[in-house]
Amino acid sequence: MAGTLHRWRRLARWVLACGLLITLPGCWDYQRINYRESIIGIGLDPAPDQPNQLRFTFQSPVFANAGQQGQGAGQPQAPSQASSTSSFRNYTVVARSLHEAITNAQVQADKQFFLGNLQAIVFNRNISPEMLRKVISELIRDPTVDNLAFILATDDSATELMNSGANAAPSDRIDRLLEESVRQHAHMVRTRLWEVWRDQETSGRAVRVGMVHAGNELSVGGLLALQQAKPILELTPEDVMGYEFAIGKAQEANLTIRMQPAPGVAESGAADGGGAGPAGGGGSAGSTSAAEAAGGGTGEAMQSGTSSSGTNTSESSMGQQEGEAAQPSFVIRVVRSESRTGVQMQNGRLILPIRVRVFANLMRDASDGQEEVSMRQLQQYEQLAAQDIRRRILHTLDLCQQSGADIYGYGTRYFARHPEQRIQLAPRWPDLFRDAQPQVQVEVILTLKGSLM
Under 8 Å CB-to-CB from 72, ≥6 apart: which residues? Predict the structure, then answer.
């Protein structure tokens, strides 16, 4: 009897094991890839004369150049459409929410919409803050949406931007411009969908997204800061470089630094309270003495600084005069940068210490490689480069302070250390950030590959 019971138990275990092996592949919910309409991009525009609705543009790739361009469902639309032989297809609808838009657009497609391959979300900066927050919340709560999709703002129509490009899909081009395959970090920011949702739900931090521009060629550059989903500050691509240095992400970028100061620029590098940097292996900004000339017969060296009014003294932000083109300059290539930042409260005022270290190569000296660069001259180049980078950081930080846009996340960091002050200080954080005192120190370590003799 015991032997019979043992055999039945053994048989039951084998049957159960075979049943589990059948269910392991999970083939019961299998769906062929050619039955899916993979949405790789979403464009958001205000709906004309309908403040409670948005115009959604869903973009999907066309792998065989087959099928016709999707037309708007619900209310008729007349955007510029891509040709039927292009590599992408757009569906444009007007709806009150994301899921309503998907439902309306689904009737145009013979495949099931799938947002797991989403690459880019582009919104027009003029859409209402309430609608933008609503769409971001819907996207982040949908488990089928790829939360690693890039999100950007544009001054142009998102619908027209999604229809630009004759060969490649605009969403795919945006993804390739911002992916890690492009190593340069200088003039554009890379913001994912989950980061936008995190920042808009976190106290003491403004949301920052990159800007995309439609023209003869799709391009990205610049930054838009939002508070409660409302735009409060736009930075130019040149200003974004100061932000990238401050957070330690600048890399693979070239800088041209003039040897002579611009007319009227005061030669004081520590006007904002930032002390001298470490005297390690590279030049550091913050010294009150003027740097000597470097290179062959270059004369007085530039001492960078940003005044209290936030005036930018860089040649690219102020515009170049014709006479400046003849001034000696040198070029460095930033290999990588590091940053250590903090936030402190002293006597009711925020102190923002920023310590930046930059590793770079000297690509061209002031003599255009006709003279050998000595170690002393290399150290002078390091000091001049540190002053220029420090000025960029201060200028961008000053722009953010004027608008109360804490895109650096100082408030989030402060409240993490002092949670008991969150309720009291969170509503006043933009004003506290405006009055904060930065203390910036920059150290540049230059490497010279060789000289042209």
Answer: 79, 91, 92, 93, 94
In this structure, what token pair is assigned to residue 419? 């949670």
Ordered by start, the domain boundaries in the chain are 33-235, 237-447
DSSP 78-134: -PPPPPTTSSEEEEEEEESSHHHHHHHHHTT-SSEEE-TT--EEEEETTS-HHHHHH
Compute the distance between CA of residue 30 and CA of residue 334 in angstroms, rounded to an integer.
48
pLDDT of residue 406: 95
Rounded Cα gap, residues 90 and 69, in angstroms = 6
For domain 237-447, give the fold: GMP Synthetase; Chain A, domain 3 (3.30.300)
Distance between CA atoms of 326 and 273, rounded to whole angstroms? 33
Which parts of the chain have pLDDT scores under 70?
Answer: 1-2, 21-33, 64-85, 165-167, 260-326, 450-453
pTM score over 0.70: yes
Please tell me the distance from the alpha carbon of residue 290 to that of residue 265, in angstroms, as a whole number. Answer: 12
In a 13 Å sphere around the CA of 170, the CA atoms on its Cβ side amount to 30
Residue 108 φ/ψ region, left for φ over 0, alpha for ψ in the -120 to 50 degree band, beta for the rest: alpha
Task: Give the pLDDT confidence score for residue 302 in this predicted structure.
Answer: 34
Tokens 């590091």 sit on residue: 338
Amino acid at 288: T
Average pLDDT for the chain: 80
pLDDT of residue 242: 95
Given this model, what pLDDT does residue 32 score? 65
CA nearest to 162, candidates 72, 95, 233, 240: 72
CA dihedral 44, 46, 50, 55 (to 10 degrees): -30
Backbone angles phi, psi at 213, to 5 degrees: -125, 135
